Every structure is written in structure tokens, then in C-alpha cells.
Amino acid sequence: MTTDTAVTPAGPGAPAPAPSGLRSMSRLAVVVLLIGTAVGLTFLGFFVGSGDYTVTDAWRALFGDGDPTTLEVIRNNRVPRTLLAVLVGVALGAAGAIMQGLTRNPLADPGILGVNSGAYFAMVVAAVAWDVSSTGGYMAASMVGAFLAATLVYFVGSRGISGASPEKLVLTGVAAGSIFSGIGFGLTMIDPKSFDAIRSWQVGTLDGRDWSQVSVVWIPIVVGALAAMILIPYLNGLALGDDRARALGVPVGRVRLGGFVVVTVLCGAATAALGPITFVGLMVPHVVRILFGPDNRWLLPVCVVVGPIVMVGSDLLARVLTSSELPVGMVTAFIGAPVLIALVRRQRGGEQ
User: Which PANTHER family match (predicted)?
Assistant: First the structure.
């Protein structure tokens, strides 16, 4: 994309980026609109879903009034499910922006680090080897797998004279992800019990999620999102290339390692909560970049707002498209695939 290279990013000691995208006042107006949309969709998620419940029933249940069945569905199903979609949207939106900034690759996706595949592999191993079947056990295993996979990718990808270059990290992540996925799928094929236990997790779904998942993942996601904000000026510096960033005083190695850890925490928590959700980390930064330009001072914070819009909106579609609710991972893939094709075509057009 031409906008990714036309701007001089700001890092420590670097000049401020040239204006691109919307004007400042227009940007502020769009940010307010996006925040309002995110809040509105979140509240809508409390009222929309399967079951013959009116808006009045849902409203009363939110405040502790109504029959026990309605209270159970609204307060212990729809509310935590919607809040979990918000948290995962925050995680994937921020992780996507960081990943594209670290690799200087506008088509990079957080899954490129092998985090999702590592989480999946660890959960399968826990189910097969230790007969883990509880939600807490699955989430603990997937977080451990995410960290181990990310550590392995960074360790292998940072070997050699050039260190942890974007190209080496991408190639190492793809290779490691393929290995983890292949072994994980193989284990499920020889152990049907483990396949039955995790098949709903494999497709990425919010169905059946409750407060236990929210209580586990909200802390790492909030901490990871706050840590992502610290990286903003350094990501702008990295956009100039490693040599120029170093000349401007950017500690490239430490920034890349820090960004790598933040992405791992965010993606690991999101994957542990819902399973592998595709395309959100890819398309959210691109949509934001079209409106706000490549400056991470706008890009990264707005991705934290747009991510929940995409996730909650996809979940609402999953609830109403069919009588039996679709996994949200299917909806994001259905939306994201055409977006990816359009982005690739646009990038090729910009290179001509």
C-alpha cells in the first residue's frame, strides 16, 4: 500500500509523520462515532440472541428481576459472552497493529507467530496426556502453549548475523505453526476423546462461554493493551527500517522483543478464550489505516476500538443468521476472506 511508505514515522527523536487519511478534527469525530458504535453494539449484545425473550425481559433480567431462566440466559450467558467478544476484539485489534508494525508487512497476521497453533497443540497434549477436561485447564494449557511457541519462534528467528529480522520471524512463525498444527491434528485423530472435547474450541466460538472465561482473560488482555500503547512511538520508528530507527535512537532489539511479548500475551489470551479467530487481526488495522493513515499514534488506539466492533458485530450476526447459532470464527472468516483478497489486489495495484 502506498500509504505505508509515504509517511515519515515518528519515533524517539524522529520527525512527526506527515498528515494522511482524515484531517485531525474529522479523525476526532470518527473516533467518537466508533466509540459510540462499540458501546451501542455491546449493549445490543445483551438483548439479541436465541430464545424467545423480549427487550423488556432482557432489561429486567439485567437488573436482577424476572424468572430464574431468563436471569440465567441474560446475565450468565449473553452478558459474559458479549464482554468476552469485546475483550477478544481489543486483543486481536491491538495485536494485529503491533504485528504489522513489527514486521513492516501490511498483510501480517498475529497467527503468523504460531501462537494460535502453539496454543492448540498444548491444549491437545493436555487433553491426551493428562485427561484435562475443565475450562480452566484448557485455558491454562493454551496460554502455556502460546508462550512456548512464541519463545521458540523468537529464539530461532533471532539466530544469525541479522538477528530477529522481520523476514526471519515471519518464516520461522509459519514453519513452527505448521508443525504445531500438524502434530495437534494428528493427536486428535488417534484420540477421539480429545477431539470430542475440543472440537467446539477448534472453530472459534462464543457459544457456551460464561464468566469463568472472562475472569481469566480480562487481566492479561487489559495489561497487554496498555503495554501496547507504550510501543507506539517505537513502532513509528521501526517503519523507517532497522538502520534508520537505530540512528534515531530506537532500541530495535528490545522494542521487537517487547512487541513480541505483548502480541503473545494478547493472542494467547484471545485464543485461550475462544479458539483460533482468523482475519480480525489482519483486517482491523487495514480498515483503520485507510481512515487514519499509518501513524501508530492514531492507528493502534483506534484498532483497540474497532476490534470489539468487528467481534461483537460478528457475534450478533452469528446469533441471528440461522436458528442454530454459528461459531463466530466462521463469521469472521466469511467477512475477512473477501477483505484479504481486496487488500492483496489493492497492494498489487499500488505497486504497479
Answer: FE(3+) DICITRATE TRANSPORT SYSTEM PERMEASE PROTEIN FECC-RELATED, FERRIC ENTEROBACTIN TRANSPORT SYSTEM PERMEASE PROTEIN
Q: Supply the pLDDT for residue 184.
A: 85
User: Model confidence over 283-321: pLDDT tens digits?
Assistant: 899 889 888 888 899 999 999 999 999 999 999 988 887
Report how far Cα 325 is from the mean position of its chain's Cα atoms.
22
Q: What's the whole-number average pLDDT of the chain?
A: 81
Q: Could you read off the pLDDT of 91-122 as tens digits, one per residue?
A: 999 999 998 888 777 777 777 778 878 888 88
How big is the chain, counted in residues? 352
pLDDT given at position 13: 44
* Most confident by average pLDDT, 46-60, 140-154, 222-236, 254-268: 222-236
225 pLDDT band, cuts 50/70/90, is: very high
Question: Are the C-beta atoms of residues 89 and 155 closer than 8 Å to each other?
Answer: no
Q: Average of pLDDT values for 342-351? A: 61
Please name each of the domains of the chain with its CATH number.
Answer: 2-351 (1.10.3470.10)
Terminal CA-to-CA distance of the chain, rounded, Å? Answer: 11
Q: What SS3 string covers the chain? A: CHHHCCCCCCCCCCCCCCCCCCCHHHHHHHHHHHHHHHHHHHHHHHHCCCCCCCHHHHHHHHCCCCCHHHHHHHHHHHHHHHHHHHHHHHHHHHHHHHHHHHHCCCCCCHHHHCHHHHHHHHHHHHHHHHCCCCHHHHHHHHHHHHHHHHHHHHHHHCCCCCCCCHHHHHHHHHHHHHHHHHHHHHHHHHCHHHHHHHHHHHCCCCCCCCHHHHHHHHHHHHHHHHHHHHCHHHHHHHCCCHHHHHHCCCCHHHHHHHHHHHHHHHHHHHHHHHCCCCCHHHHHHHHHHHHHCCCHHHHHHHHHHHHHHHHHHHHHHHHHCCCCCCCHHHHHHHHHHHHHHHHHHHHHHHHC
